[in-house]
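User: quick one, fold this
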Amino acid sequence: MKTKLLWIQGLACNGNAHSFLNYPQMAQFLEDFTFVHHPIIDSPFTLEEIVSDYHPTDILLIEGAIAEGFTRGGEEIISVIKRYAPYVKKIVTIGSCATFGGVFKNSPYPDGGGFLFHEEQKRERFASYADKVVSISGCPIHPDLLATTLYMLKEQIDPPLDAFHRPKEFFAYTVHNGCTRNEYFEYKVDNHRFGEKEGCMFYDHGCQAPFTHGSCNKILWNEVNSKTRAGQPCMGCTEPHFPRQNLFVTKKNMGIPQYLPFDVPKRAYLTLSGVTKAFKISRLEKRLFDV
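Assistant:
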């Protein structure tokens, strides 16, 4: 039997809905699931029909930040969620806006935030549904992460979750894990320009991979690439405080990055930096290949 999904949007840019269309096994997915409503994919009920009356569904998918006064289809989004949340088996927040507030934390709506969290702070409005919630943060979400999570829920498998209700299967790692630039990071070899394959972007270009939870370098985008592999720094889009200012700049104090990798004491970092800087590895100073 197909699992019924209802995809609704709060304050959103539609980015996650579009990203999900890149799921490579979409044809099979639509054989196993059916959308009661989706903002892009053909579905049996319009938005107006969804918000005006209850339609049975198994999993409620929420994209976008939640705020009082924001409406969809002529109905306040909070009322729509309250109509469906008590009856669904699971609630999945899709993207960093639905999970933490994301770019809409500073919207004209004064209380805009995530379903359960405003950044790291818990919100009370929907706290009674916390046991149902699984969160997939990201801007946008990786389609494979969402699809795999939905298949787990379809099979009544409850994935282990972190403190923000994200599946540990995908968010127990940092984006730094699996990065092809790790050797450059270890020996403090900087990257000089975006798009280059050589060098680490942590030291000058604001890469947040060492303190961002995600599987971007383990489960590749479009099955071939990631931001760091393409020569762009990680922007930390899965984390509660995304987005920050000056995304492509590494803040430093006396030449030391202000933010260090998780659980690395500053004294240990300084010691290690001094040792590794003493190495001069000519291989890492050269271009991998000339174009």
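User: anything notable?
Assistant: The first strand starts at residue 3 and ends at 9.
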